[in-house]
Design a protein that fits this description.
The complex is a heterodimer of chains A (about 400) and B (about 60).
Chain A: E1 3-10, H1 14-25, E2 32-35, H2 67-73, E3 75-78, E4 83-87, E5 92-95, E6 100-108, E7 112-114, H3 131-143, E8 146-150, H4 154-164, E9 169-174, H5 181-198, E10 202-205, E11 209-215, E12 218-223, E13 228-231, E14 233-236, E15 240-242, E16 258-259, E17 271-273, E18 278-282, E19 287-289, H6 294-309, E20 322-327, E21 330-336, E22 343-350, E23 355-362, E24 365-372, H7 375-386, H8 391-398
Helix pairs in contact in A: 1-6, 7-8
Chain B: E1 2-5, H1 15-19, E2 24-26, E3 32-34, H2 42-54, E4 60-63
Antiparallel strand pairs in B: 1-4, 2-3
The chains are: A alpha/beta (about 400), B alpha+beta (about 60).
Chain lengths: ~400, ~60
C-alpha cells in the first residue's frame, strides 16, 4: 500500500468534483482525494456541444475549478491517474501504475463514455464526450462543407444546430424517427424536426446506418435503403454507456451502472456511486434509474456527501430529473421521466413563437413534461412532478 | 447574508427555483429573479446557499 485517503473519489468530472466540494460544505474533516484518468482539470461537459462548437465559441471558458480552488478546499486531485481495479474487502484500489491506495469511503464517479458504432473505424467519425473530442470536432468543422449527423438525441441535435450556424450542409439520420423521439415520442419529435429543418438541416427519420467508411478525405455513410451519403465530416451521437469495466470481478454489483440503494450506497460497505455511472431506485417515480444529466450529477453529489458525513441519518435521493438543451437559439427542457409510449397532452402550442408545452402521463399520473421556450412553465411542472400530481391537476395548474 | 444574481451569467436554467422556490422565480425575461430583497438568515440562508451551489453557471453569489 502506497497511499490512503479517507474519501477516495474515482473520476474528476462534475459528479466527483461536486461530491468532494459538498463534503467540505458539510464540514467533513478527513482527507479527500480524486483520481482522474484524464489530463484536464474539471470542466463543464454540457458546454462542449453548445458553446464550444458555436462559431464564436471560447475554448478557454469550460473550466470549472483551478488548482488554487481545489487547494483552498483541501481537495487533492490527481490527474492522469487511472483506477484499474477495486479490492472491496481490503478497501483498496489499484492504479494503472501498479500502486495501491486505501480508503475508508469510495465514491464511484467514473461517468460514461460515448457508445461507439460497431464496425466503424474510429478515424472515420467523431464522437463528442471529452474536451479533446470537442477540440477535434471544432477543428474539423472549420473546413467542412457537408456533414452527416448520426443520431438525433441531445448530442446529435445540438451538434447539428451548432454546425447549421456555421453554414455547413447537414444531413441527420435517426433510426428511431424524429429528433428526441426515443424519449418524447413522434408528436413532439416532429415539432423538433421542424426546428432542424428551419435551421437548414435535412432529416432522414427512420433511416439506419449500415456502414461508414473514409475514402481519402471523403466520408461515406451507407443507409439501409441502399443510398450513400457523402460528407467531409460525420458525427455520431448514439448514447453513452457507464464506465464500470474497472469494477469487473469486484464485489460491487453492476447492471447498466453501479447498483445502489435509495441513499446511493452500493451494496458493498463504504462504497457509493454518483452521476452517470450510478443506478438507484428513485422512490418518487418508483423506478430504477440511471441519469446522465448535469443536474443529476450535482444533486446526487450533495446527497452522497451528506450520507458520507451523516451515516446515521442518511437522505434518500428521489429527485425529479431535469435536462435542458439549447438549439438554434431555443431553450428545450425536459422534466421527469417522459416516455415515447406515454399519454401525451399538448397544453400550449404557439408555432409562430416556437413555444410548445407537452405533458406526459402514465395511468393518469404526470410522468414528465417537455417545454420549448417556456422555462417558467417547465419549473412549475417540475414542482408538479415532485408533488406526484395527476395529469388533470397539472393541466389545470399550467393551462 | 445577501444573494446576488449575476444577470450576465444567468441562463434561466431554473435550478435555483427548484432548490428554493420561495426565494427565486423565472421572470418574463426567462432569467432568475429574487422574490424578495434584503438580508436572509436561518433556513432561508441555507436554501440560498444550496441554490448558489446548484446553479449550472454559478450565477448566484452569496455575500455574508
Amino acid at each position: 500500500m502506497t497511499g490512503r485517503a479517507d474519501v477516495l473519489v474515482v473520476g474528476g468530472s462534475v459528479a466527483g468534483l461536486r461530491t468532494a466540494e459538498a463534503l467540505r460544505r458539510f464540514s467533513y474533516p478527513g482527507t479527500v482525494t480524486i483520481h482522474e484518468a484524464g489530463d484536464e482539470l474539471p470542466y463543464d461537459r454540457t458546454t462542449l456541444s453548445k458553446k464550444v462548437l458555436a462559431p464564436d465559441g471560447h475554448l478557454a471558458s469550460v473550466g470549472l475549478r483551478s488548482r488554487e480552488d481545489l487547494d483552498a478546499l483541501g481537495i487533492e486531485l490527481r490527474l492522469r491517474s487511472r483506477v484499474e481495479s477495486l479490492d472491496a474487502a481490503r478497501r483498496t484500489v489499484r492504479l494503472d501504475d501498479g500502486r495501491e491506495v486505501g480508503y475508508s469511503t469510495l465514491v464511484v464517479a467514473t461517468g460514461s463514455s460515448a457508445r461507439e458504432l460497431p464496425g466503424v473505424p474510429r478515424t472515420a467519425v467523431h464522437y463528442l464526450r471529452t474536451l479533446a473530442d470537442a477540440h477535434r470536432l471544432r477543428a474539423a468543422m472549420e473546413s467542412a462543407r457537408r456533414a452527416v449527423v448520426v443520431g438525433a438525441g441531445f448530442i446529435g441535435s445540438e451538434v447539428a444546430a451548432a454546425m447549421s450556424a456555421r453554414g455547413i450542409e447537414i444531413t441527420a439520420v435517426e433510426p428511431a424517427g424524429q429528433p428526441l423521439a426515443r424519449v418524447l415520442g413522434n408528436i413532439v419529435g416532429a415539432r423538433l424536426g421542424r426546428l432542424h429543418e428551419a435551421g437548414g438541416v435535412r432529416l432522414l427519420p427512420g433511416r439506419a446506418v449500415t456502414a461508414i467508411r473514409a475514402v481519402g478525405a471523403e466520408k461515406q455513410v451507407g443507409l439501409d435503403d441502399g443510398t450513400t451519403l457523402r460528407a467531409d465530416l460525420v458525427v455520431v451521437g448514439v448514447g453513452a454507456r457507464p464506465n464500470t469495466g474497472w469494477l469487473d470481478g469486484s464485489a460491487v454489483e453492476v447492471a447498466d451502472g453501479v447498483v445502489c440503494d435509495e441513499c446511493c450506497r452500493a451494496g458493498t460497505p463504504g462504497v457509493f456511486a454518483v452521476g452517470d455511472v450510478a443506478r438507484w431506485p428513485n422512490a418518487l417515480f418508483e423506478e430504477s434509474m440511471r441519469v446522465e444529466h448535469w443536474t443529476n450529477a450535482v444533486e446526487q453529489a450533495a446527497v452522497v456527501a451528506w450520507n458520507i458525513v451523516n451515516p446515521d441519518r442518511p437522505r434518500r435521493y428521489a429527485p425529479v430529473p431535469y435536462v435542458w438543451s439549447d438549439q438554434y437559439g431555443y431553450r428545450l427542457q425536459i422534466v421527469g421521466r417522459p416516455r415515447a409510449d406515454d399519454e401525451v397532452r399538448i397544453v400550449q402550442d404557439d408555432p409562430a413563437n416556437a413555444v410548445l408545452v407537452a405533458l406526459y402521463a402514465r395511468e393518469g399520473r404526470l410522468s414528465g413534461a417537455f417545454a420549448l421556450n417556456a422555462p417558467a412553465r417547465a419549473m412549475a411542472l417540475r414542482r408538479s412532478l415532485a408533488a406526484r400530481a395527476s395529469l388533470e391537476h397539472a393541466v389545470e395548474v399550467g393551462a | 447574508m445577501k444573494v446576488i444574481i449575476d444577470p450576465d451569467k444567468c441562463c434561466g436554467y431554473g435550478e435555483c427555483v427548484a432548490t428554493a422556490p420561495g426565494l427565486f422565480e423565472i421572470g418574463d425575461d426567462n432569467r432568475a429573479h429574487l422574490l424578495r430583497d434584503g438580508e436572509l438568515s436561518g433556513p432561508d440562508a441555507e436554501l440560498a446557499r444550496d441554490a448558489s451551489y446548484s446553479c449550472p453557471v454559478e450565477a448566484i453569489d452569496i455575500a455574508e
